[in-house]
Amino acid sequence: MTWLVTGGAGYIGAHVVRALQAAGIAPVVVDDLSSGHASFVPKGVPFVEGTILHRALLADTMREHGVTGVIHVAGFKYAGVSVQRPLHTYEQNVEGTRVVLAAMADAGVHNIVFSSSAAVYGTPDVPLVTEDLPKRPASPYGESKLIGEWLLRDQGVATASDEQPLRHTSLRYFNVVGSADPSVYDTSPHNLFPIVFEKLLAGETPQINGDDYDTPDGTNVRDYVHVGDIAAAHVVAAQRLEAGEPIEAAYNLGSQNGLSVREIMDAMARVTGIDFTPRIGPRRPGDPDRIVATGELAARDLDWTNRYTVDEMVRTGWEARRAAH
């Protein structure tokens, strides 16, 4: 088995690469390094620097390495920024996914795990998100991920009568945190963990955006899942596809319970040993009180479980970030 990981030099993709290796599956990486880092790709793993918009490059890479499936992680992942850059978002996430599927067809590759997002749900008005909830994305990013899922679905229908039809699944998740390898850490300027880490390293005080929400401690409750668990679920999905086993079209990789922003801040102080009291800022427009997804289907089919406590999520992320200095 050899699987291509698009975006395999990024934070999540690089963890998927390592999880594939641990499972005895040979990975190949394509990444344009727009947000990834060549140093995140393990030594010995074939790495092609290039864009997923380059169909021939993708198809040639698949043929050269005997690829049997694709884990499609590459994409423009900043929901807030996507509102200002919708055309770029659609190019990277919609056209990019179309080109990946076209290259797979060119190369005779029939299995794909799509790294989707819980952003496809928008801001649901239920406390626990299930896969069948109506899709109401609230940003071009969420829309682009939903369209990506439609592309997989439609290509699956189109090839259903072929000798080898497209087999696919989409994995939806919210906030990915922590590290399962000290050489790989989250470098996003938009995610809570790296924002807090950078503040603490600079001797500054992190901020909570609003503390008057309808939650036990007044701060937003969100779904935080460890990147090691996310990567493992991608690999099990790939194995199920390769083995021809039944698989759902989409799975939530959810925590079931969620964590509040204040709980995260408390864990940050405990784990880092830096005593601080976060500043309270104004609410951000459109922030719902609580969004948490169930992971029951993924637990049934993908060995999905939360293996890390909040302190372990913080500790692994903090150690990897500090190791980067």
Automatic annotation (TrEMBL):
Residues 3-254 form the NAD-dependent epimerase/dehydratase domain. The keyword Isomerase applies. The keyword Cytoplasm does not apply. Its cofactor is NAD(+). Belongs to the NAD(P)-dependent epimerase/dehydratase family. This is UDP-glucose 4-epimerase. Keywords: Carbohydrate metabolism, Isomerase, NAD. It comes from Microbacterium laevaniformans. GO terms for molecular function: UDP-glucose 4-epimerase activity. SUPFAM superfamilies: NAD(P)-binding Rossmann-fold domains. Its EC number is 5.1.3.2. GO terms for biological process: galactose catabolic process via UDP-galactose, Leloir pathway.
